[in-house]
Specification:
Number of strands: 3
Largest sheet: 3 strands, parallel
Strand order of the largest sheet: 1-2-3
Radius of gyration: 19 Å
Number of helices: 4
Order of helices and strands: HEHEHEH
Strand content: 5-15%
Structural class: mainly alpha
Helix content: 40-55%
Distance between the termini: 38 Å
Shape: elongated
Length: 107
């Protein structure tokens, strides 16, 4: 996150104010992927500091939007919920197709 933010700042200086926007996709919370409590605590602290620096935020549920506001002080017009749904072309896979796929993958 910090490298992306610094890159946007550097581009703003380089182009005299026309910097790219720094957008975070909160599809997952990075700190939640660590097993160690120390790593998890440090990552959460880091995300809490860097998160509010972004120009915009994308999240996949309204609950995540509320959580970001309560925990990372990220809220308002800068936050947008984009629900994570597969396109219509995806649907349930028939048992025969599953069997064929698993046979080819030797699973």
């Amino acid at each position: 996150l910090m490298l992306g933010y610094l890159f946007c700042l550097w581009q703003g200086i380089k182009t005299r104010g026309r910097r790219p926007r720094f957008v975070i996709d909160w599809h997952n919370l990075g700190f939640s992927m660590f097993e160690s409590s120390t790593q998890r605590t440090l990552a959460k602290f880091y995300e809490r500091i860097v998160g509010p620096l972004a120009d915009a935020h994308l999240c996949v549920t309204h609950a995540m939007e509320v959580w970001l506001g309560e925990n990372f002080d990220v809220h308002g017009k800068r936050v947008r919920v984009l629900y994570d749904k597969p396109p219509f072309m995806f649907g349930p896979t028939r048992v025969e197709e599953q069997h064929d796929l698993f046979s080819r993958l030797e699973l």
